[in-house]
Amino acid sequence: MALTWLFFVGITVAWIAFLIWRRQNSPAPAETPPPFAAAIISLVAGGFFFVAGAASYAILLATDCFTFNFKTPVWSGFKARLYFANIVVMTGFALGIGFGITPLVQPPVDELWRKRANGLLRAGDGDGGRFADREGLCFESGRPWNHV
Q1: What are phi and psi of 130, to 5 degrees?
Q2: Which of 33, 45, 81, 147 has its CB 3.0 to 4.6 Å from that of 143, i.e. a possible disulfide?
Q3: Closest CA to 105 of 52, 42, 45, 51
Q4: Whole-model pTM?
Q5: Higher pLDDT, 137 or 20
């Protein structure tokens, strides 16, 4: 079991590293949607997922988690249904809230990302973990980032 998780984490890390490596020299996207359009799309998606989560919660409450026959013991099958129902309902609510707050959180995060991307060029590569600015000068010493 532990080997399976280790394999899963290794594959995930490898894919993330590959995707970051592949995009490091690509140009910025040519066109992005206007902020108000992205906010409207996000709010609509958030509303959909929130309503879907609420509807699935109501259906599960009304049907006793899809248990229709109480003449026999129900706990063995009920546990599995309840487990998956908790995942589905909470995922719907979480996606709804996440998409709903995106228009509020995205502008400050974008500004923070822009400041960091404009001020920093590269990290590591022999500079002792210090960052270098656009001209390649180390922030701490003012010398070139690759000084020995």
Answers
A1: -85, 160
A2: 147
A3: 42
A4: 0.53
A5: 20
